[in-house]
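Narrative of activities, Objective 1.

The group set out to show that a structural description can be obtained from nothing but a protein's sequence at a throughput compatible with the screening campaign. Below is one input-output pair from the validation batch, recorded exactly as produced.
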Amino acid sequence: MGPRLWLLCAGIGLAAIACALRPGSADAGQAAPPDAGAQADAGEEPDASAPDGAVDAGDGGQDNLPSIRFTPPSPAAGQTVRAEVTDRVPWAYVDLGGTGPCGGVFGRWAGVDASDAGTWTWHFDLLGLTGGSYSLAFTADNKARSVVQAKLEVAGPTVCGPSRFIYGIHSWNPGASALMSGKKGWAVEIMLVEDPNRAGPAHLSRYDAIIAEGFEPITWLEWSWTTVPYWTSGCPTFAGGSADAAVKLGARSKVFVLGNETNLKYGRTREVTVAEYVSCYQAARSAIRSVRPEAQVLVQAVGPWNPETDCASGPYDHTAERWKNYLHCIVQSLGAGADGYAVHAYGGRNGDRDPSDDGEWGFGVFEATLAVIDGAYAGAAALPVHLTEWNIHADGTWPAYDATWSGFIGKAFDRLGSWNAAHAYRIKSASYFTYDLQGWEKTNLTASATALADFKSATSSSSYPSQ
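Output recorded for this entry:
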C-alpha cells in the first residue's frame, strides 16, 4: 500500500470538513486515512521530562497547542482511554504511540474532525493498558516528526503478558465476563444490514458494554436471513450498508465477517453460488476498506459436511466433499484479496464427549477446513483465522450440556491451544455458539450450569494467547 495522508475537505465523502494541506505534503490525489495499525518505535521513547498528565506544548504558543487530552484522565487498568490530539496544523501520516511498563503501545485510530476555530483533533483509543507509567507521542510524517508528547499514569497492578486470548463467545449478554477469569477475549455479534437503524445508538451502547467487559467484538454482517438477492443483484446495496455500519461502529469493531454458510439453503430461497459470493465479498470488502482501511474483512465460514452446493472445478470428491470444493473455489478465486477466514467446528457427534482426538467428522473439522484453505491459496497460512462457531452439536440432536459433558469445553480449548502453538498462533479466537441468544436456548451456555462452570474452569486453568 502506498503513502497515506489525511486531507480534510469540506463536503467530500464522510470527512465533510475544511480542506487544508500543509506545505510540502502529498498531492491531494493520495488522500486516505492514516494506518491505524502502525506501532510507534519502542526505541524512540518520548521525552520523559514532561510532567504527569501534561504535554509538551511545542510551538503552539499561548493557546497551549498542540495538546493531548486523555479521557478518563486517571484511568484504571483495563479501561479504554480516549486520547485526543488537537493542533492548528493538519498533520499528515499521523500515529499515536510510545512505551509502557510492558513495552510498546499504540493508539487505535478513531477518527479526526475540525473546528470552526481552525483546529484539528485526532482521536485514538488506547486499549488493554495495565497499571503503570506510559510515555506517549503524537507523530507525523510516518513518525519522522514528534509533534507533542505526554505521560499517562494508569492505576492498578502491572501485569505483562498476552493482551488477548482465544477464548470467545457468540451472542454476548451482560455478565459474560464472569466466564473469563479476568482475561480479555472475543464476542461475535450479528448485524443485519437491512436494518435502517444498523449501528445506531442501541447498537453502539451494546458494543461499548461488550468492550467494557473485556471482549473485542467480531461483527458478522448479513443483509437478512434470506440473503440470496443481496449476494446477486442487490449486492451494491449490501456493500454500501456494510460500509455504513463499519463507519458508525468505528474503533468498536475491527473484524468483520461477510455472510455465513451460504453453501446451505437454510431459510433462503436457494444456495449462493461460488461466483455470487466471491463477487459480493469483493464489493463489500472494497466498500468497507475504503472507509476503514484498518478493518479485517473475513471470508465467511462455510457449513462443514453439507452436501447441498458444489464447485465443479474443485479437487475434492463431488459427492461426499462438496463443501470442501465450495470453500476451495472461494479461497482460490479471492487469493490475496481476502483479509482472513472464519471457520466453524462442531464436536459431540454420536455423543462423543472428548474433542481431543476428533477427526474431520467432529471437532477436528477445523483442521480439515484449514487444510482446504491452505491448499487453495499459498498465502492463506499468513492470514488470521477466527472460529466464530463451535459447540457439542455436530449431529444436530441438540443434547443438553449436562454433567456427562463436563470437561468438553476445556479439552476443546486445550486442543486449539496446542495446535496454535505449532502454527504461529494462527487461530485468533474461538467463540462458543452460543452464550445467550434468544431462540437458541438449546445451545446457550447460560442454559447449563455445567457449561458455564466448564468455560470458567478453562479460562482459569489455561492461558492460550491469540497472538
